[in-house]
Amino acid sequence: MPLINNFNRKKNKYRNVKVEVDGIKFHSIKESNRYIELQLMQRAGVISGLELQPRFDIIVEGIFICFYKADFRYFDNEKNGAVRVEDVKGMRTPVYRLKKKLVEALYGIEIIEI
After folding, report:
1. Domains in the chain: how many in total?
2. Structural domain containing residue 82
3. Do the beta carbons of residue 32 and residue 57 sit within 8 Å?
């Protein structure tokens, strides 16, 4: 577990604490812990192809509307290589809920909330 220095930090809107693990900056302790878990799962061969912050463009009738960035995407080797997309959430904002529904509908995937 990384040591966190909270001195002289500006309070975050959602009260999360940014953390750095392996030179990668995460938006919360919860997200960094999930990254560590997924790394261990990848080393054990349970998952493969771990990707951080995959981007999904939201395009409707040929018009770019916005984009959504998930926290993680990987292949679940125990489920015949099924693609899994995860988002570590503390606060589910209305914008997040809308983008999640759009991405799930447009890409035919399920976003797993951790």
Report:
1. 1
2. 19-113
3. no
Measure the N-to-C terminal CA separation of the chain; round to a whole number of Å.
19
Cβ–Cβ contacts within 10 Å for residue 51, how many?
12
Tokens of 84: 């899994």
Specify whether the CB–CB gap between 86 and 71 falls below 8 A.
yes
Tokens (6 digits) for 13: 């809107």
Instruction: Evaluate whether residue 92 is within a structural domain.
Output: yes
Q: What's the pLDDT tens digit per position in 28-52?
A: 899 999 999 999 999 999 999 999 9
Given 3-state DSSP classes, what are the helix, strand and coil percentages for the chain, each rounded to the nearest 5? 30, 35, 40
- For residue 77, pLDDT over 70 is answered with yes
Q: How confident is the model at residue 3 (pLDDT cuts 50, 70, 90)?
A: very low
Reported pTM = 0.82
Q: Could you tell me whether strands 24-26 and 63-69 are parallel, antiparallel, or unpaired per DSSP bridges?
A: unpaired
Residue ranges with strand state E in 19-101: 19-21, 24-26, 47-52, 55-60, 63-69, 72-76, 82-87
